[in-house]
Amino acid sequence: MSSIRCKTLLHWYAQHRRDLPWRHTSDPYHIWISEIMLQQTQVKTVLPRYRQWFHTFPTIASLAEAPLDDVLKAWEGLGYYRRARFIHQSAIRITEIFSGHFPSDFNAILSLSGIGRSTAGAISSFCFDQRTPVLDGNVKRVLKRWHQKPEALEKQLWEWAQSAINQASHAANWNQAMMELGATHCSASKPECALCPVAPHCRAAFHVDILAEKKKPVAVQNLYWQVDMHRCPERGIWLIQRPDKGIWAGLWTPPIRELDKKPKQKPSHIHQLTHRRIHLYINLLTTLPTGHGQWVRDIRSLALPTGIHRLLTS
Ligand code: SF4
């Protein structure tokens, strides 16, 4: 890693960084929530949800005390609900084990549910000024291009990332700058080498082989689900809570039955997940529901998956 490249990238970041609310704080609770929200969700979607989160749960203690249902409700629409469950578990752990204070030790951060090495690196550098690298998808791509090694493995990437941050004058800004470069000029499909501040120090500059970098597409699995709809003008709609594991874990839906084969009729709604396409078929019932569940008049009072929301409100 050349020190000129370090200085150039940090200078570019200082001049051109996007103004994002989590870049105005080093409070670990705020950084933690922003990092988890940003893992699978676009910045523009996260922005209003990030602000709203701290109105609902202003402190780690308030988050730990809240019922899981409230946390899932606050996460509604962000997808990958496992993240919300992990956040809740970690808030409880922070309250019980760390006296309510977010830990500053890297291994303690790593011990929290849903926090991997890269996220721990972000929190540890942004909040506690530690030289712990971030290695998310954007940073991996930048490092592979700098070294012109599209096939580089995790171990090698971590070594490059650590070596780079060791030479940077500011650990937090370094991680932010690497993520920013990957999210802007050094994007996966359209690298803008002509605008890139570190092009003179990049081995792949102006001849990135996008096709060679492309990963094999993952096959999409089709699922056919019958949604048993019990509606009652006086009581509302019958909803049950899904099991703790699997798709839409812990969220509220009408009773769902997985069908063995694709029905002849058109689905009422199709919901796309990353690697799954769920075809939903409404089955209107006039019988009374059985089993555990509840009548719900206002579906906004519970956490429902986006696909079910759309189905019920379309
Ligand atoms: S020169 Fe091109 S490939 Fe290299 S880091 Fe910059 S944008 Fe990415």
Query: Roughly what is the average pLDDT, rounded to an integer?
Result: 94
Number of helices, where a helix is a run of at least 4 consecutive DSSP H or I residues: 13
CATH class of the largest domain: Mainly Alpha
Here the CATH topology of the largest domain equals: Endonuclease III, domain 1
In N-to-C order, the SSE pattern is: HHHHHHHHHHHHEEEEEEEH
* Class from helix and strand fractions: alpha+beta
Integer-rounded radius of gyration: 23 Å
- Please outline the major beta sheet: 7 strands, mixed
Straight-line distance between termini: 54 Å
Give the ligands present. Answer: iron/sulfur cluster
Domain unit count: 2
Share of helical residues: 40-55%
Beta-strand percentage range = 5-15%
The count of β-strands is 7
CATH arch. level architecture of the largest domain:
Orthogonal Bundle
Give the name of the CATH superfamily of the largest domain.
Hypothetical protein, domain 2
The coarse overall form would be globular
Low-confidence stretches: none
Keywords:
single chain; 314 residues; alpha+beta; Endonuclease III, domain 1; Nucleoside Triphosphate Pyrophosphohydrolase; 7-stranded mixed β-sheet; 13 helices; 7 strands; 13% strand; binds iron/sulfur cluster
Outline of the structure:
43% of the residues lie in helices and 13% in strands. By secondary structure, it is of the alpha+beta class. It has two domains: 3-213, Endonuclease III, domain 1 (Orthogonal Bundle), CATH 1.10.340; 221-313, Nucleoside Triphosphate Pyrophosphohydrolase (Alpha-Beta Complex), CATH 3.90.79.10.
